[in-house]
Amino acid sequence: MKLIRSLWLLCALIPAAALALDGKALLAKVDRNLEPENYEMTRKLINEEPDGKRKEFILYSVKKGRDKVAALFLQPASDKGRSTLRQGDNMWLYIPNVGKPVRITSLQSVTGGVFNNADILRVDYTEEYEVTSASEEGGNYLLDLKARTGAVAYDRLKMTVDKKTVLPTVIEAYAASGLLVKTLRFKDIKDFGGGIVRPATVETDSPLYKGYKSVMLYANVKKRDVPDEVFTLNFMPRLDELRK
């Protein structure tokens, strides 16, 4: 009887294991659906304040692999020529009249507003986080993510992923204390061509900054391979060469 009961329990567990979500594979698919490993794109960042004031930035960005990103400010005129570089957890800002890249952190923001440098220079989620749980709820997948190191901007993410598109719709970002730091909402699915279909709008707000809101509008997202040289400190003053 004990043997029969053990065999019955084993058979009962096999389907559950077979149907269990592979959270790691799902997150990797989310990364690739959001953007190719190697790409270039143009974004407009808009910061909105409680009194109605707005400030807008236009950035040209390139990415290589899963953890190298560079961005160049095109507008406003006061910021034109500035560039940023991210190599894994390391980030730099280049200001033309300073002439030397300076270190910046993931929690700072080169544009002000609610988006921080980790949001603006985003690398693959699979590079920064591991999946601690994956489940299904209606038409969505729910992923709980934990930062791999203390250098990551957020200690934990709760990601809601649409089942049909395998794209995030909402991401809640939490500090190590459990405090909700911000919420990101992904909207306006657009076909950018070349097999890239992703949200064209990302909005964020934070309970820490009442009445403030930041929006990221994506344009001209396309695959592009660029040399490794582009993601070096020496190339930061020359990033505009990629647009010629």
How are the SSEs placed, and which strands pair?
Elements: H1 2-19, H2 23-34, E1 39-48, E2 54-64, E3 68-75, E4 83-87, E5 90-94, E6 102-104, H3 117-120, H4 125-128, E7 129-137, E8 140-147, E9 156-162, E10 167-174, E11 180-193, E12 196-205, E13 213-223
Brief overview:
16% of the residues lie in helices and 45% in strands.
Structural features:
outer membrane lipoprotein receptor (LolB), chain A, single chain, alpha+beta, 244 residues
Poorly predicted tracts of residues:
10-18
> From the helix content, strand content and strand pairing, which structural class follows?
alpha+beta
Q: Tell me the total number of β-strands.
A: 13
Tell me, rounded to a whole number, the average pLDDT.
Answer: 92
CATH class term: Mainly Beta
Q: What's the N-to-C terminus distance?
A: 77 Å
CATH topology: outer membrane lipoprotein receptor (LolB), chain A
Please count the helical segments.
Answer: 4
Number of domains: 1
List the strand order in the largest sheet: 6-5-4-3-2-1-13-12-11-10-9-8-7
Estimate the helix proportion, in percent. 10-25%
For the record, the CATH architecture stands as Clam
- How would you sum up the global shape? globular
Order of helices and strands: HHEEEEEEHHEEEEEEE
State the CATH superfamily name: Lipoprotein localisation LolA/LolB/LppX
Largest sheet geometry = 13 strands, antiparallel
> Taking Cα atoms only, what radius of gyration do you get, to the nearest Å?
20 Å
Percent of sequence in beta strands: 35-45%
